[in-house]
Amino acid sequence: MKRFLVVLLVIVLAASLMVGCTQKTQEQPADQEKQQEQQVEKKDELKVGMVTDIGGLGDQSFNDAAWRGLKMAEEKLGAKITVVESNKMEDYVPNLSSLPQQGYDLTWAIGFLMTNALEEVAPQFPDKKFGIIDSVVDAPNVASATFKEEEGSFLVGVVAGLKTKTNKIGFIGGMEVPLIIKFEQGFIAGVKAVNPDAEVIVSYTGAFDDPQKGKELANTQFSQGADIVYHASGACGIGVIEAAKEKGLYAIGVDSDQRHLAPDNVLCSMVKRVDVAVFDISQKVAEGTFESKHYVYGLKENGVGLAESDRENLDEETLKIVDEYKEKIINGEIKVPTER
């Protein structure tokens, strides 16, 4: 009997061990599956970053518009986003390299000044994607977005030509380069379309990050009789708007809706939808439809135009005339100049 009990005990213990091993074997695949799911989730998280042009965030214009596009990607795509701000041109290459090194899927170069830097960096990270605003980089992992700034500038030129009381209007650009000349020439064409007798005074700050210089030039133009000044000068425009406010005259904003900077003195704003371009191409990365091509945003694509607040603040007659010219540009009746 004792021997029988011993044998029975051994059998029971052996069976228990077998059950335990079976449970562990059954649980292990579940643990592995959970780990795999976590790895997939981590891998599928979209990471998008941007490198600002000189001046960084807070310009109330160009860089801030791009950041709004990233915030849209965060909100609508669940993307992890970040920004690296540039203080000088020498920052471009290391800043653009830092994001793919950290595993970011898409890195944005915000501004044409980063063209050469991106041409250097993109080939070093062939498995990562890049985007650039206001320039075209021919590389298999780069999407380029440019705008028909001349078309939007034509429309605010129409507003200025209709609203000036002195027949003198100012334009202040940042750097005197082909991109900003598109703003200048489109604006002049819009002014002249409705007011051939108006004079447009043109000045350049030589930079995009000097509000004081913008203010000085605006004050000079106001002293010459201008009662409206349109700027395409990045953060320099903050100074232009300050000058208009102090003089009780008008400024026209650019890139973003700048009415909030001086509600009574910003006549209108030429909105350049950098945010739309940044979000659109970021979404293509999320959906797996990214292409290394050149995207162009004009009036037809809703890439440029008057700010939404302008629809509430400008009179109906002015808006009617603006819309008539908008349709003529879209259907090809008017070809807006881009060069002097």
Short account of what is shown:
By secondary structure, the chain is α/β, with parallel strands linked by helices.
Describe this structure in words.
The chain has 340 residues and is an alpha/beta fold. The strands form 2 sheets. It has a 6-stranded parallel sheet with strand order 2-1-3-4-5-11, sandwiched between helices. Strands 7-6-8-9-10-12 form a 6-stranded mixed sheet, with helices on both faces. It is globular, with a radius of gyration of 29 Å. Helix 2 runs parallel beside helix 9 and helix 7 crosses helix 8. Strand 6, helix 6 and strand 7 form a beta-alpha-beta unit. It folds into 2 domains: 125 residues, 3-Layer(aba) Sandwich (Rossmann fold); 147 residues, 3-Layer(aba) Sandwich (Rossmann fold), CATH 3.40.50.2300. The protein is built from 11 helices and 12 strands.
Layout of secondary structure:
Blueprint: H1 2-44, E1 47-54, H2 62-77, E2 80-86, H3 92-101, E3 106-110, H4 115-121, E4 129-133, E5 142-147, H5 149-163, E6 168-173, H6 178-194, E7 199-204, H7 211-223, E8 228-232, H8 236-247, E9 250-255, E10 266-272, H9 274-287, E11 294-297, E12 304-306, H10 308-313, H11 316-330
Parallel strand pairs: 1-2, 1-3, 3-4, 4-5, 5-11, 6-7, 6-8, 8-9, 9-10
Antiparallel strand pairs: 10-12
